[in-house]
Amino acid sequence: MNKLEKRGSISIYDGEYVLKEEQNLQDLEKYLLSRDYHGFVPILSREEGKNKYPYLEDYSLNKEQLGSDIASSLALLHNKTSFNKEVNLDKQKEIYDHLSGYIHYLDEEFLGILKSIEYVDFPSPSETLFMSQFSKIKESLGFCKRELDAWYGIVQNKTKERISTIHGNVKLDHAILNDRFYLTSWRSSRLDTPIVDMIDFYHHEWNKIEFSSILETYFSKCELLPEEKKLFFINISLPHIPEFKKSEIENVTRIRSLFDYLYKTETLIGPYYTIENKK
User: Fold this and answer.
1) What mean pLDDT is reported for the chain?
2) For the chain, which domains are there?
């Protein structure tokens, strides 16, 4: 009788193999192998709508090193599978309009929160924190708008863009260091611009690991075009709208997380906007 062990959403049988209920990824694996990319745990077989994988222990000891390994693997994946795709000029305009509209939406939402607090006679600690740091939100949104305009100035007449196979759900929990490094959980993989994986990775793990060395690793091994890098920086600089709860402790935590994210992101991308780097 098979011994079953549950670790989160993973079912481990006899400490030897894992069954995952997901789409058939064997064609994806064949394609990645044809492009000389081996950074995935190979499927052993397909059984009743489930993929069977060998069970591999994660021997990584340091999150920072694991993050660097992820960056290296993503750079290799994107380099090995990238190609230029013809695009209609309307697509660039659609991206610009979408992001411009979203920046305007965020601006209105945050301003609405500020105005609602201004009518409160005795603001709570979370409300006081929001008001005291509100200028950082305006600064971040202003940066995103300026960079978006600069991005559109570069791409508005371009008819090609770089596309690659992306992982689609990059996080520390989806990486294993065993006999070599593997990315796991490929069910969201698709063709898209390479920066999607790095945006995803940052959004998932910005508060767990230091990203300056991770970006250096990725950029050194997968050179992004100026417009790709701008779009990446815009997307990670957008603030998230905090959801206020009944618990004031939770509200303070959420507001502090919002501003921690903005300050940390500003520090991360600042070196890429120095006079030396611009030259």
Assistant:
1) 93
2) 1-55 (no CATH), 58-279 (3.90.1200.10)
